[in-house]
Amino acid sequence: MLNLDANIDLDVKKFFRWWGNELSHLLPEEIKKILDQQQSKLILRPHASSFSLTYEVGEAIENLGEFSRDAAGVEAIKKILAKDARYEKTQFIVRLAPSDAISKELTFPIAAAENLQQVIAYEIDRLTPFNKDQVYFSVKLVEKNKQAGIVRLVLVLTPKDKLDALLDELTALTLHPSLIDYEPVSNQAKSDVSHYNLLPAHRRENKIPWHSYVHGGLAALFFLLLSVAMVLPIWLESRAVAALRDDIAVIEKEARAVENIQAEIDTIIARAQQLIAKKQQSPTIVDILNTLSELIKDDTWLNYLRFNEGRLQFQGQSPAASALISKLEESELFANARFVSPVTRDRLSGLERFQLSVDIKPRSGDDATR
């Protein structure tokens, strides 16, 4: 049954070592060569009267020779290192022989795994013939068995006086190792999760290993790409939506302009149709004059005529002005005939002077469409 209360023991360093190795397989060959050169190691093995030196890159091992443990031998080592640019950024390691160090496999309860260095420092006089002030020690983790509740490790130690003397000798010769291990329990590749170092902390240079930069850079790149992969589609979609909104705003503006123009056109058409309809409903001036000429006898004549807003006003002289009213009323074109002013008689002509107003009847539907 799944135990949801169990603690999750996540080894972050182990994960990042594994992750870095997996990512390295995806790199181009040229970059891998550069990184391999950065991961190369110069291993110095001290013996009673000599030093042996090897150059290692991955599985390839190049023996650079054996040198006497004196000024001449060290000078020869310096010349070899100076003439080849490969050695400039190479990790310098001192690997102790069985005559300079010892190791012992131990088993502890798994609870001690969180603080092995302090546990060993407290128990070292019981576990070895030395006390903690006599030796430098380090721990190489072999196995952490959670089911059995134990942790297996290898304790590696070397006498302080012997290692201090060796380091003083190398320092005087301007050789500064970054790591010291033991030949029978040597560190493997950088991905070795049980990596250990016998070099005392106060002798180590305060610099961050290059692979820390690589792992940090890869982690930063991973999260950057992850962020880009998550944010970029949203950003592109928002840009597309914004562009569509801008296009829609332009189209809406153009549509409103078209609607306004269409409204103006409709208004003009409506007014024109009203004028046309009004004009079609009213008789033409020619029809009015023809009808008026037919109704008025030859003894009647006009000296003024005005047509406005469906009404015709005219004045003139006639022998019988009152007879004009009935004639105009009988017409299909005129209606509501009336005198505008009193009828008077002209003394010279003897005719009645009149001023009439008459309404013009609208044309019928059939006549208006002709």
Explain how this protein is built.
This is Fimbrial assembly family protein. It holds the Pfam family PilN. By secondary structure, this protein is an alpha+beta fold. The protein has nine helices and 13 strands. The strands form three sheets. It has a five-stranded mixed β-sheet, with helices on one face. A hairpin with a 6-residue loop joins strand 12 and strand 13. The longest helix has 72 residues. The radius of gyration is 59 Å and the shape is rod-shaped. The two termini are 102 Å apart. The model has no long low-confidence stretch (mean pLDDT 82).
SSE topology sketch:
Elements: H1 12-24, H2 29-38, E1 41-46, E2 50-57, E3 60-68, H3 71-83, E4 91-96, E5 102-109, H4 116-127, E6 135-145, E7 150-159, H5 160-172, E8 179-182, H6 210-281, H7 285-295, E9 301-308, E10 311-318, H8 322-330, E11 334-339, E12 344-345, E13 352-360, H9 365-368
